[in-house]
Specification:
about 220 residues, mainly alpha, 10 helices, about 70% helix, globular
Amino acid sequence: MPHQTLKQRHREIRDTYPEDLNLRIHRALSWWQRALMAEDDDGRYIFLWIAFNAAYATQIDGNDRLSESSSFQAFLEKLCRLDTEKRIDALVWEEYSGRIRVLLDTPYVFQSFWDFHSGRISETDWQKRFERGKQKAHYALGSGNTPILLGVLFSRLYTLRNQLVHGGATWNGSVNRKQLHDCTQLLGSLVPILIELMLDNPNTLWGQACYPVIRD
């Protein structure tokens, strides 16, 4: 769905929505719009991840803080439950199935591969973890389990996010461009679906938004 269509829909119904949900949607829409303006995959991917982050991130008690990956995993599972029209399924199993399979076989977006090259784990350890991850993904692929597949997939997307945000890649570089392009396309298709699902389900518990707006 086009950005302007979702933005206009939000404007028409936001007065009846919870404040935290409105803030999430407003922020996610703003960063999605910025991503659409980017002319390079590096910038677009970073802006798309911020849009995704704006949608899912919550205020978590510091004494019981979930890891970020666990947080967005729970968010993705919630989206799949709410997606009665199976929009995410169509995206994963039809539009992007081939590229997802290739991505899951790519070590350059697998964190343990880089942990090995940094001397943190052994070569055997990273290869075992890689195989377990692929087996989990293949199980999901064989059983049509979208939440499990998304969990494995987003662990790869998160590694790519870290590479870019923490300066572990060169802007517009020549290395590993195909997986960046594929990940950008996938995330760019998923972000509007998750925003639409949030608009469709205002009564779901989305949690308190991070960094609420404080007015003097």
